[in-house]
Amino acid sequence: MTPAVPGPQVLLTARGLVKEFSVRGQGGAFARKRVLRAVDGVDVELRAGQTLALVGESGSGKSTTARLVARLLEVTSGTVEFQGDDVTRLSGAALHRFRSEVQVVFQDPYSSLNPRHTVERIVTAPLVYQGRSVPGGARAFTRSLMERVGLNPDHSERHPAQFSGGQAQRIGIARALAVGPKVVVCDEAVSALDVSVQAQVINLLRRLQREEGYSYLFIAHDLAVVRQIAHRVAVMHQGRVVETGDRDALFASPAHDYTRALLAAVPRIRPEWEAARRARARTRETADGKRETT
Amino acid sequence: MTAIGKTPPLLEVEELNVTFPTPQGAVDVVRDLGFTLEPGGSLGIVGESGSGKSMTSLAIMGLLPPRATMSGRVRLAGRELSGLTDRQLRRVRGDRIAMVFQDPLSSLNPYYTVGTQIEEAYRAHRQRVTRRQARRVAVEAMERVHIADAARRVDHYPHQFSGGMRQRVMIAMALCTEPDLLIADEPTTALDVTVQAQILRLLTEVRQETGAGLLLITHDLAVVSEMTEEVLVMRAGACVERASAERLFSDPRHPYTRALLDAVPRLDDEVGELRTVHGRGPSPAAGATEGDER
Predict the structure, then answer these.
(1) Do B226 and A268 touch (CB under 8 A)?
(2) What is the mean pLDDT of residues B39-55?
(3) Is the pLDDT confidence value at B11 over 70?
(4) pLDDT attached to residue A293
(5) Helices A119-129 and A165-177 meet at what angle, rounded to 10?
(6) Per-residue pLDDT tens for A9-30?
(7) Would the pLDDT of A189 be above 90?
(8) Which residues does chain A have within 8 Å of residue B249's beta carbon, measured at their own beta carbons?
(9) To the nearest whole angstrom, how far is the Cα of A77 from the nearest Cα of chain B?
(10) B192 touches chain A (CB under 8 A)
């Protein structure tokens, strides 16, 4: 899983993204409107089959950037180039096509899945919405999709509430994959999960990328999670990208003060405790291995 | 460390059981839990969602919802808390025990200034305190948690503070009665990582100054490894392992603890396949279980 240098072709390029929101200033209903610039001149380059992580704290503009790229929000200015088109200007059939190419997985699986619908209805909805037929019929399609994301295909008639948080997030991933996208935007997709479940979903995303070649735009506030999945990392702060780089280089020698502060703030288990634990685990594994071979 | 027999432990929990009635029958959310905390000591209770860690802290404080039933003994400095009336318990809470919760915004009243709320907390536990004395205590408490310009900020409302500053206010409120025990339930979970680092540093600092014991409830293994001398791992309502932080992190003995530590994403790790915890154990909310997926 080493990032390829100089790397595969660029799939999606955003240049000079700006997003302004007008917010009411202090002073109630008569207050003058203020303009808040949530994203302030951001450039993003996503390569085929790779993961670009946008990392930052709350209010850094990382989620807004992701939504601009996925065209869930309209830009104030800037361009998003994907397969020769400027995504910000697409409409009609072209926009529909774009929606099949770029899909989003959200943070909270329960609130982003319709609780009254079955898995089958949820994962086939994007195709139905786009007026496309479901290849091989809804049931067979759902079953194979559920297998790909590690869910039991016999549960296709169940409702979201009958699944655990990690499983519900797999349904969210299945729905994103249903239309056969090239790009999946993961907006804090593993942030709400328990650590053991989070590891499973990260493994799933990595396996899907390995086997099926998706590009991920991975939005996260957790640097340790980013370290597990990203090829390239862009650090955002106050609406701007302060530093971009290959994952290993950025983690090993962060160039920007803010990146350094962010890395320094991450709580960590003492290295000597970690080393001791790993040494013990290795010894156990060798011992187990010997026992099995004899 | 005090000689045994002279000073009783700060906190003793014995055979604690908490049960909730559900339509499917009674669910044990805490099962036969026992531990002691010496004066000035620190214990971290760590577990995933549904492990019973927060129910444990609520049971100690006598803050369980009315429909929960609890058995077992909780002693604070040798004094039995489990048999006390609500009124007696209220005196102990806040006076000798103070609590810091995850979400400071929902624990603070938006209609009163933070100063008023700290003063109220102080006066509720101290007899014959004048308003001026209480106000001085409030300003001092805010200075102690490094809120700049405390004499002015004391008259501000909660919404005028950032998330991290609000958590400082909560800590100021918790400390103003000079408690012997501070219970912090996910105190930094809602905060950005740089703010989390500041709040954790502050908690350590005030403990050193006041000598208060700390019971830290968290899902974050790295946080607990930095904060407490002892660690108790909970799963499905029960303790699976308890040890000094050094022993637990360098030589975990229980398979669940080992799997949990393997699943923690790390900043400085060579990225391999993340280990995952197989099975989540009996979930207290019966139904979905996690972990069979590849």
Answers:
(1) yes
(2) 95
(3) yes
(4) 63
(5) 30
(6) 999 999 999 999 988 766 666 6
(7) yes
(8) 269-270, 273-274, 277
(9) 29
(10) yes
Q: How far is B245 from chain A (nearest CA, A)?
A: 9
Domain boundaries, chain A: 10-114+185-255
Interchain pair A265, B264: CB under 8 A: no
The domain at B7-96+179-265+273-285 falls in which architecture?
3-Layer(aba) Sandwich (3.40)
ipTM: 0.85
Every domain range in chain B assigned CATH 3.40.50.300: 7-96+179-265+273-285
Test mutation, B201, B220, B275, B276, chain A, max A CBs within 10 A: B276
CB pairs under 8 A between A and B: 145
Structure tokens belonging to residue B201? 């540093």
What is the reported pTM?
Answer: 0.87
* Partner B contacted by A279 (CB < 8 A): no
Interface test with A, best of B49, B160, B250, B278 (most A CBs within 10 A): B250
B142-195: pLDDT as tens digits:
998 999 999 999 999 999 998 889 999 999 998 888 899 999 999 998 889 999
B-chain CB neighbours of A188 within 8 Å are none
Angle, helices A257-265 vs B193-210, to 10°: value is: 50
Dmax of chain A from CA atoms? 82
Q: Write out the CATH class of domain A10-114+185-255.
A: alpha beta
Contacts of residue A144, defined as CB under 8 A and 6 or more positions apart, other chains included, come to A136, A153
A148 near A200, Cβ under 8 Å? no
Q: Which amino acid is it at B119? A: E
pLDDT class of B61 with cuts at 50, 70, 90: confident
Cβ–Cβ gap A267/B196 under 8 Å: yes
The CA radius of gyration of chain A, in Å to the nearest whole number, is 21
Query: CA of A62: how far to CAs of A18, A55, A232, B158, in Å?
Result: 12, 7, 15, 27
**Is B277 a residue whose pLDDT tops 90?**
no
Contact B290 A271 (CB under 8 A): no
